[in-house]
Structures are given as C-alpha cells and as structure tokens.
Specification:
Blueprint lengths: L2 H8 L6 H21 L7 H12 L10 E5 L7 H7 L4 E5 L3 H14 L4 E4 L13 E5 L4 H8 L8 E6 L3 H4 L5 E6 L4 E6 L1
Parallel strand pairs: 1-2, 1-4, 2-3, 4-5
Antiparallel strand pairs: 5-7, 6-7
Length: 192
C-alpha cells in the first residue's frame, strides 16, 4: 500500500483507483516542473502526498456539486486534486502566475481532465458567474476571500476555505459555517 493510500485510509477518505493513478502522474509531473519553476514548497514525495491528502480530504463531507471554482490554485492544491477525485464536478482553476497556470494546463491535458478549465488571471478579473462551490487554500484571510467570492455566489453556494488554527479569529457569528478539523488543517465550510 502506498503512503498516499495509507494517509487517505487513516483520514477515512475513500476514492477510486483512478484517483490514485492520476495522483501518481501528477506527482511525477510536479517533481519535474518544480525543479525548474519552483511551483510549491512541497519538495519530497512524502510532502506532496501530505498536500494531496490535505486537498482531497473534504470529499468526506462535501455534498455533490456540479460546478466549482478554486481561487489561487497554485500548483494544484486544492482545486486540481479535488477535480481528480470529483469527476462529476466541473472545476475552474484561477491562477494568476503564468508558470503555475501553464503547469495546471499541462496537468489537465496529460491526465485527460475534461472537467477542468484553467484561467490564468486574478479572480478579480474573471467575469462574474455562479458556482456551487468555491474553494481556496493559503491565499488570504477569510474576510478577503468572502469579498473575492461574492461575484460568484448565490444563496446556495458553498465556500470551502483551507485554514490553520487561526480560523477561529477569522469567522464571526454572522456567518453560517462549520469547521471540520484534522491534525494539521481546519476546513472552513460556509453557506453563503
């Protein structure tokens, strides 16, 4: 059993074998590109496995959604990883840095991910459209994420922000939210 299998099993995450195949392809591509372009701080296979497990963990509590947008996808966390595990959801990955957006396009093509669109721009420059789910990890604080998400929300949109332990300082009681906690992550799920 691979380390990624072990991480997901211990977290109670169930994904199909196709996810693991895609994850292995993704890891190979990331290792190659990261040497040249420094796309992510995760350098070792073990660190990348942890990033993947962290990104995919919310499928244990997310309802089925048709459309999702990831703000500031970076090297693929969490948007690309979620797209690999949620075949029935169409993901728009928004990444302003050209080298990262190029990597995401390459991964999309190499893995045959027809449920992914990459937008090489800032989210502020994207035309307003409604999404069922908006995600973001390590971009900015919750209030700014709420502001950035506003043109893409309606009253049924879910917002999933990957946060650390300071998440409790970033939410106020006017929000309808839940926090799902693991050893290293606080997943903030907000109903808009």
């Amino acid at each position: 059993m691979s380390r990624l299998h072990q991480l997901l099993k211990s977290a109670g995450v169930t994904v199909n074998e196709r996810f693991y195949e895609r994850a292995e392809q993704y890891k190979t591509l990331l290792a190659k590109w990261n040497k040249i372009h420094n796309l992510t701080g995760a350098k070792t296979a073990a660190q990348i496995d942890e990033f993947i497990a962290d990104a995919i963990a919310p499928i244990t509590f997310l309802p089925p959604v048709k459309t999702a947008m990831d703000i500031g996808t970076g090297a693929g966390f969490p948007g690309m990883i979620l797209a690999m595990g949620m075949d029935d959801t169409h993901f728009t990955l928004v990444e302003p840095l050209a080298k990262r957006a190029s990597f995401l396009q390459f991964v999309k093509a190499d893995l045959g991910l027809n449920n992914v669109d990459v937008k090489a721009m800032k989210v502020e420059d994207l035309s307003p459209a409604r999404y069922d789910l908006i995600t973001s990890r390590a971009v900015t604080d919750t209030q700014m994420l709420l502001k950035l998400s506003k043109p893409f929300c309606d009253d049924k949109t879910l917002l999933l922000f990957y946060k650390g332990e300071k998440v409790y300082d970033e939410v106020d009681e006017t929000l309808k939210y839940q926090i799902f906690q693991t050893a290293n992550r606080h997943y903030l799920l907000i109903e808009s």
